[in-house]
Amino acid sequence: MKKTITLLLMVFTIVCYSQSIDYKAATTKKGSNYFEIVNQVRQELGAYNKNASKTEIKRHKQFERWAYYWKDRVDVNGNFPNNFTGWYNAGIIDGKGKLKNTTNAHSRVAGNEESWTNIGPQEVPDANGYPNNPQLGRLTNFLRYEHATDANQNVLFVSAPVGGVWKSVDNGNTWSPKLDYLAGIGVTDIKSSSSDINNPGTIYISTGDFDAKHINSIGVYKSTDFGETYQPTNLTFSLDEKETTSNLIVIDVNTVIVGTNKYIKKTTDGGATWTNVYTHNYDDAVLGKFHRNGSNIICSDSWGGLLFSSNNGSTWSALISEGENSARYGTTTDENGVFYVQAENGQVSSYNPNATIPTLTAVGSTTVGYNTQGSYNQCIAVKDGLIISGGVDGINSDDLGNSWYVTLNNAWEDNTSAGSYGHADIHEIGTLDNGYSFWNVNDGGLNFVTYSNIADEKPTVEYKSNGVIVTQLYSVAITPQTSTDNMIMGNQDNDGYSLEMVSGTPTWVTAGAGDGTCTAVDYSNPQIRYLGSQNGGLTRADNGFLGDVWGTSLTTPTTGAPFVWTLKMHSTTSTTLYGGFADVYKSINKGDTWTNLNSGAGPIEYIETFGNNLFVIGENAVKKSSNDGSSWSSVTQPEAGAKMNSISLDQNNTNTVYATVNGYVDGSKVFKSTNGGSTWTNISGSLPNIIAKQVVLKQNQGQEILFLGTELGVYYKVGTASWTKLGQGLPNVVVSDIEINYTQDKLVVGTFGRGLWEISIANNTLGVNEVEASELAAPTVFPNPVVDGVLNIKLNNTSNNYDYKMYNVIGGLVKKGTLNTGLNTLDVSKVATGIYVIRMTDGKTVSSQKVIIK
């Protein structure tokens, strides 16, 4: 018996979305204010409740993800910039929105010879007992070229809202990125003028993120070499236009149709010129969701209008006038050329252009349980009377809409659940092969779905995008105690991934969270791992997440916590944690209980700590404490026209502080204070006017070494030298989080849309001017491992004294002093078990050695 969905859920969904303001469209409207929108929508949504309905939780997530994206981009007054201001300022696009020098986009900006390496996960992590496990990340569309005799040689393409275009020449077994220089801009659609694998024609892409509307479009690009490289057509936009482009209709090699905010545009000369073939009454109509059958094309807009063309898009007429509702339609056709559209309320209607008197006619009853999250995910497919309605779930009807049931279930638990598991939020869907085989792209990737017959309730679902690394990271944490199972990452919409040993092999396993917002690993005991979820949720796994996918849920002060919140571990006492909730809280027992430190900074956005020194950035103020939060003083903002968004503290001199600020204030990105934040010196130097996300000081070195994560990769600076782009091969994408692996001398970065990367930052690769002591001259450190609390260091053949600093795997300073000629005995009995680095210098030469304390 088919399991239908209650009408109550459908009504609730319609009501809650009809009350929402269109915050996504606000970024394109003059006079829109970020802070006013955030306050209004948060009042409308109310406090986040993890026990609320999935519809309400998803509403919170959609909005808070949008707010998080814009937080570092708006100015102090809340004005919205163009998405691509940084791209223009960095010299990647010109004033008309065209990319410059696309064939050499990486090497053109490379600063040193080191190369970035993607460190995964390369495939979907081990589900780890999670029945509806996360996958690699959201995709927006799919293109296939079929091989005549061997399906394993099919050529597939997928597009991502952050992550570009990916290609497979073996039917999805392996994938490679083809648009990394555009990774941070993303792609809404990919279509071709041909389906012939031997004559692939021209491939067109529509840029930006049409569904989520976080990222605008820079226009339509095309490839004439089977998707290997892409060049702009003449449909591009200046920074002031803040445009969108929709999915595409590609009629032939030269004829393409696309929707923008106000127009339907058409080219008949391969993109050299574009004509407005339809002009909407409103500037924010966001025309799109096209579907074509022969010369007939249907199109919806965000004002509830529905347009039809019978002549390949040359002219258009209204099937439904705009303004009848405030959301777009999903559109498709069946095998007979009959069009089907689905409104935001779930009602499916048909339109047969070949009828004597074509009319738009309601089909069956309204889809029950239909949820598009305000048109974020809305698509439909029809074949032989089988209707598949794609929203949060895949909801089917095999009797032309008279009854509905779930077949693609994002909340699938086991075979007693309705349908088969399909990742939430289906963005596009289409027919695939003979019979009832379909593809869909969703927030987890690409699926091939096969129904054995029209009434099949549990279709076969095959995940096809293993290797398409488009994971959107908020946070990464490492523990260099080991080189094999040493990381955990938190991801937007795809929970967390923890790298752990499985049968002797380092394996990424799933850690449950929802949105994985913050992470930490106990550097004294790497098995103890933390994963935060939205609005202050936190779990701890005391023996790793392997076999314990949800860990232990900790009671945290979630009320008033930011959606993407911050968790910081004390740099030398790993059982002490600091949490960024409605204020900064402290736990001395691994998160079991929390105490409010009452900084008065408001909801906390960033925390930096060493010893008793605490710096916190809140929504209302920046505060510091030198007594572990017992009392607080204010820190001056470095830039009047921007707001501080990250801090790094010199652990050898806590009056030395580094900070970044948000927004596009030219020449104001990174600042340094030598008096604890009372006054600041601008050290932005030659940095382009791009968003600075996070600054990190490499601790305990002979000179100042800084790393800066930005919206376009990583920069570094040594001493008084200029900032330089770090390494080669990192896609043009936002760097969300930076960690230094001190025992392996590597920088690990989490990106938003292209997964996890690392690069060597050994001082000699950075151009640091220091001389390594020879093996004979270097101090001798013994015993190693240390088992009795005594570490001996002998200075060999030297009359010079050495200064030493002993620091843990995250750079936390645990001991420092002077070594005299001869034998030196250090008491390390109070130093926790683990791996440490001891750096010794006589001012001329340097020796850094690892020490294990057991």
TrEMBL record:
The keyword Signal applies. Residues 781-853 form the Secretion system C-terminal sorting domain. It comes from the Bacteria. SUPFAM superfamilies: Oligoxyloglucan reducing end-specific cellobiohydrolase. It comes from Lacinutrix gracilariae. InterPro entries: Secre_tail (IPR026444), WD40/YVTN_repeat-like_dom_sf (IPR015943), Xyloglucanase_GH74 (IPR052025). This is T9SS type A sorting domain-containing protein. The lineage of its organism: Bacteria, Pseudomonadati, Bacteroidota, Flavobacteriia, Flavobacteriales. Keywords: Signal.
